[in-house]
Amino acid sequence: MGVKSAPSEPAAATRIQRSVLVFGGSFDPVHNGHVALVQHFTMLLKVDEVRLVPAGQPWQKAGLKASAEQRIKMLELAFDGQLSVPYSIDQQEVERAATQIPSYTVDTLTNMRSQWGNAQLNEEIALILLIGADQFHNFATWKNWQQIFNLAHIVVAARPGYSLQLDTLPSEFAALWQQANGAIEDLKQCSFGKTWLETDLAWDISATRIRDELQQQGQTKETTSLIPRKVLDYLQVHHIYN
Fold first, then answer.
1. What structural domains and CATH numbers belong to the chain?
2. Count of CB atoms within 10 A of residue 6's CB?
3. Model-level pTM?
């Protein structure tokens, strides 16, 4: 089966002036793994800005336990003072959910690009979408996933020893991924359209497991080691999971 809807060729003539790391998730709750992951890629990719995108109501997940306002507050508490570059909490998916509008990554990235408006400026800004290995394997089920290659670079964070196993993925997605795959330096040479896999990460923290333990047992020694102290205090005050 041939490749369909191939991504546009990334603009190569314009020098990248700024790179923005985009990291989305339910953050229900935010934990130390999230913070460490963003810190790691902020330094590794030498980005100039981080945008955290809390999900509204992810269509591939069951209902969230914490409210949007609570998850946004937890992000503020977790990331305040933790990064070497400016960060912001992009609330567009939460705002869409509040009006019963579904959110998709392709729409979120398109909106970010539209904020810069000017075509020349867009060519000078590299968007880097950071996803986990589980999201990578579901990527071909995302709405208009091919278009994402035309909006951002895609970086996958995986555990040591992880293998892409492209032969287990839909052929169109596997072909586009291989076509776009390159070296980490390529992410700074154009504004979108490159892919890269990082497998030197030792963090394996499950927000679902943390949430379940908090609901069943309250704060244990293990859960307190996995959640930022300020977030733990906030959870205790507001009784979000227990």
1. 18-204 (3.40.50.620)
2. 15
3. 0.88
